[in-house]
Fold:
Amino acid sequence: MKSKMLGQVLTAVLLLNGAAFAAVKQSPAVPKTDAEIAARVTHEIAMYPLYSMWDIVNVQVADGRVSLSGAVDKPFKKDEIESIVRETPGVAGVDSQIKVLPLSPQDDQLRLRIARAIFSDPALSAFAGLAVPPIHIIVENGHVTLTGVVDSELQKTVAGMRASTAGMSFGPVVNNLVVADPPAKKKA
Structure:
């Protein structure tokens, strides 16, 4: 009786190990081209739970080596994002030029004021409910830069105007927003 139970247990263990091996074997393929690696790394960064509208990380890949640039608002985010990228399949190495923005209550206040001004506008309010809106608000020592991608030239203009009128910034707001797929200009 005991040997029969032991045989059944061993069979179950072997079946479970076989299923686990099959699951590992079916895991997503390792990216091979630089474009595939860039897409995978960009996705992994976007899925990082602490990546927010106050951060911007740009990704470039050459021969499997990933170059990171941009800025984050907390020092630990830089280290964690670099670690996530290093662990991404297909990455041969990481060169990080991510800047850590100064920790400043005044900059934090300005970020919030600008976000409220931008996302309360009817032209941009649809972005307000997103976990990471496509408009990133980078504030460094009172200087404001908007980055990211919007759907239209109108949204880009409105975001820049709203950020400029939120007050407390030192100098003009730099509007580096990009319009996704702008309409082709008609020839006259």
